[in-house]
């Protein structure tokens, strides 16, 4: 069993789909994989179960996703963990890699989006990085299925124990290391081999309540009822306090140590050259978000999308309704021919079929135009710029700029808009966005006047 | 001379190093998760049309911060 971990938006689900061939939908908002998705694959005759765990930046359980991810790494007992990274911002991704390495050393790092990094002029010395981390690092471009065989090879080697697992360890400042050393032996005796005692000790010191809950569930008893642990924990905490490290300081120190280690791992590995393309991107960015051109460009772009959707949808709408209502007449003829009673055929054909045909012909074309266009904007990376431009005004209404995006989605479909609200971090702002989303008329509800002209009920002879 | 100022006062194109994080709770942890700790270099890249939020380059990633959050980050710059 292999766990697939990674930051949000690094193409983790793409890797998963390419490996398993299972078409799990990939979305572009954080926390899309809320529970673990599973798939199977066979590589060189070996069967694997792949588990796609939620995207997260850290395993310190600040959010539901991080909790699920951490719980699976700790208690799901995966045989190996593949951490998928974004080659374009590798250093940031190292945070998660290092935290995963604290839990288990059966880790394979998959550096995805190599193609994108190349385009951005980023060169990576992954061999050097692999040496520093002490685990295999495999480059990949999952979208074009590059590097995935190498990845599975590395996973196989890791499972067979051919790559000697002597991975890097984040070292903390002296007082913390001392406190860990005090706690570690007794934790090890109780929990044994299945969980890294050093990591667990650190989490106990850090007072990670959500981990304790999961831990107690997995163990079947309360770790904090063990006298020895409680005593040692008390001692270790006192030791920290006497050296002037409070609970808050401890958390800060842990995070800083990990970030600094990540920095060290990446120095010399990541070489960034400014390319022409990047300079051009910066120029475009400036136009899209500047004081004078930001709003006009935004209004123009969104306006064009709406115009295309509303006007463009008219023609296929008309065709569809003509076709479907032509079919209705044929259906009616058929039903009459085989002698279906009048009440039944009017219920089926004029009731069920006509309503369905009506809904499909009115709603399908605008959706089929709106969503691809919206996706295009998303892929171009324009949508975050919209949120960036509008945040101040939304903030005045105690909402978040990202609500602009969920509202735009709402024009296509309110359900999609509300689901999209999970990109908003603050629970209050998210709730506001969800509740108000239904005030955005979706394309089934805003009926442009010319739609009436295609009304098939008008001028139609009722044939009974 | 080294000047301590809040990140919110950094102008477009200027760079500075984080001296201290004043924000607490979940915002502090989010900032730490993106690698914003003491000593991290931050570059002010672009202001939004309304002047707030502002985009910063932090460890190679472009991050937008509202002024209420960036004013809780103290930075040191050689000014």
UniProtKB/TrEMBL annotation, chain B:
Keyword RNA-binding: no
Start and end residues of each Ferrous iron transporter FeoA-like domain: 5-77
Keyword line: Iron
Pfam families the UniProt entry points to: FeoA
Protein name, entry field: Ferrous iron transport protein A
Organism: Anaeromassilibacillus senegalensis
């Amino acid at each position: 069993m292999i766990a697939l971990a990674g930051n949000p938006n690094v193409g983790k689900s793409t890797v998963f789909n390419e490996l398993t061939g299972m078409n799990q939908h990939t979305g572009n908002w954080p926390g899309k994989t809320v529970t673990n998705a599973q798939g199977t694959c066979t590589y060189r005759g070996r069967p694997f179960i792949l588990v796609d765990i939620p995207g997260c930046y850290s395993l310190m359980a600040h959010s539901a996703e991080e909790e699920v991810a951490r719980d699976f790494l700790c208690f799901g007992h995966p045989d190996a963990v593949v951490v998928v990274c974004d080659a374009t911002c590798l250093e940031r991704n190292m945070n998660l890699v290092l935290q995963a390495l604290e839990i288990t050393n059966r880790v394979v790092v998959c550096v995805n989006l190599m193609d994108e990094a190349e385009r951005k002029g980023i060169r990576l010395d992954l061999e050097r990085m692999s040496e520093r981390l002490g685990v295999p690092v495999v480059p990949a471009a999952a979208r074009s299925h590059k590097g995935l065989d190498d990845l599975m090879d590395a996973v196989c080697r890791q499972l067979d124990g051919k790559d000697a697992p002597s991975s890097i360890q984040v070292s903390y400042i002296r007082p913390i290391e001392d406190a860990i050393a005090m706690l570690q032996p007794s934790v090890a005796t109780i929990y044994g081999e299945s969980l890294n005692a050093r990591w667990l000790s650190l989490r106990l010191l850090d007072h990670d309540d959500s981990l304790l809950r999961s831990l107690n569930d997995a163990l079947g008893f309360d770790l904090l009822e063990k006298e020895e642990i409680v005593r040692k924990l008390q001692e270790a905490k006192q030791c920290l306090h006497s050296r002037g490290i409070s609970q808050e300081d401890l958390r800060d120190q842990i995070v800083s140590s990990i970030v600094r280690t990540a920095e060290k791992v990446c120095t010399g590995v990541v070489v960034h050259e400014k390319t022409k393309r990047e300079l051009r991107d910066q120029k475009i960015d400036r136009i899209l978000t500047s004081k004078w051109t930001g709003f006009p460009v935004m209004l123009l772009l969104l306006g064009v999308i709406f115009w295309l959707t509303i006007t463009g949808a008219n023609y296929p709408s008309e065709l569809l309704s003509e076709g479907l209502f032509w079919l209705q007449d044929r259906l009616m003829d058929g039903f009459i021919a085989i002698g279906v009673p009048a009440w039944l055929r009017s219920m089926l054909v004029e009731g069920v079929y006509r309503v369905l045909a009506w809904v499909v012909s009115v709603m399908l074309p605008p959706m089929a135009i709106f969503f691809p266009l919206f996706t295009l904007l998303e892929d171009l990376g324009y949508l975050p710029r919209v949120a960036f431009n509008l945040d101040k005004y939304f903030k005045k209404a105690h909402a978040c700029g990202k609500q602009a995006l969920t509202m735009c989605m709402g024009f296509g479909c309110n359900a999609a808009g509300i689901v999209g609200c999970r990109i908003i971090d603050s629970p209050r702002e998210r709730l506001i966005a969800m509740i108000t989303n239904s005030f955005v008329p979706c394309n089934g509800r805003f009926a442009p006047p010319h739609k009436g002209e295609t009304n098939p009920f008008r001028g139609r002879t009722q044939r009974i | 001379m080294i000047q301590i100022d809040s990140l919110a006062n950094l102008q477009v194109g200027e760079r500075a190093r984080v001296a201290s994080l004043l924000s607490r709770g979940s915002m502090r942890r989010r900032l730490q998760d993106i690698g914003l700790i003491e000593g991290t270099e931050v570059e002010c890249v672009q202001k939004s049309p309304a002047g707030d939020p502002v985009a910063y380059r932090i460890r190679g990633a472009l991050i937008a911060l509202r002024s209420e959050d960036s004013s809780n980050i103290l930075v040191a710059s050689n000014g």
